[in-house]
Amino acid sequence: MIIYGSSMSPFVRKSLAFAAEKGVAVESLPGGMGGGSPAFKAASPFGKIPALEDGDFTLADSSAIVAYLEALTPEPNLIPLDAKARAKAIWFDEYADTILAGAVGPMFFNRLVMPKFMGKPGDEAAAANAEANLLPAAVAYLESIIPASGFLLEDRLTLADIAVASPFVNLMHLGWTPDPAVHPKVAAYVAAIHARPSFAKYIAAEKAVVAR
User: Is the pLDDT at 34 greater than 80, yes or no?
Assistant: First the structure.
């Protein structure tokens, strides 16, 4: 099974970490940013990452990919079966992909991707606006709802945690981490999820790329 796209993308990282927590072996291959093999382009008709190839089956979009992996390998269960918890898992996945990544994306793209990987100045005004006006509410919401267990649902790791923790890696690459004095629950939560082997492997590889 192949997942295309750099783990620098929070969506690719989510898919890779989800597969790792499932115990599903995947090969990570390049794709996106206008590049990638013909096989990637066949798997992702619009060039979006991540994309998946499993034999003759292809699929694009991180939420679709994790749904496929969950159905393919039901245990360990990472998308709850209880109706309310399952709906909440889908909500947190959407929150991570739109609200949280919507705040992180302009910061990461303009402060790291553009100058380091594309050799062009980023739009600092867009990054600053996201940091000042989008990120605080997204992080404050998370601080207000993290349970004492340190997991968002059912007192155990689920898709919700994998999806929500992923954009925080991008912030870390920018030198931004939750302030324990302001958001103690978020700081502890993010640190714990990122320490899991499913995340730590990719974080270490990404740090090496950023440091080049």
Answer: no
Q: Please, what's the b/e burial string for 99-133 (b: 16 or more CB within 10 A of its CB; e: otherwise)?
A: bbbbbbbbbbbbbbbbeeeeeeebeeeebeebbee
Select 2-72's CATH number: 3.40.50.720, 3.30.360.10, 1.10.10.10, 3.40.30.10.
3.40.30.10
State residue 17's pLDDT score.
98
Looking at the DSSP bridge assignments, the partners of residue 2 are: 27, 53
Query: By C-alpha distance, which of 69, 89, 66, 96 is closest to 158?
Result: 89
pLDDT in tens, 114-123: 999 999 999 9
For residue 23, the number of C-alpha atoms closer than 13 Å in the C-beta half-sphere is 5
- Pairing assessment for the beta strands 51-54 and 2-4 based on DSSP bridges: antiparallel
Q: Show me where the domains of the chain are located.
A: 2-72, 83-211
d(CA 98, CA 148): 25
Report the 10 Å Cβ neighbour count for 171: 21
Bridge partners for 42 per DSSP: none
pTM: 0.97
∠ at Cα 174 (192, 118), nearest 5°?
130
Query: What phi, psi does 97 have (nearest 5°)?
Result: -75, -25
What distance in Å separates the CA atoms of residue 95 and residue 98, rounded to the nearest whole number?
5
Residue with tokens 């969950």: 70
Q: Assess if CATH 2.60.60.30 describes domain 83-211.
A: no
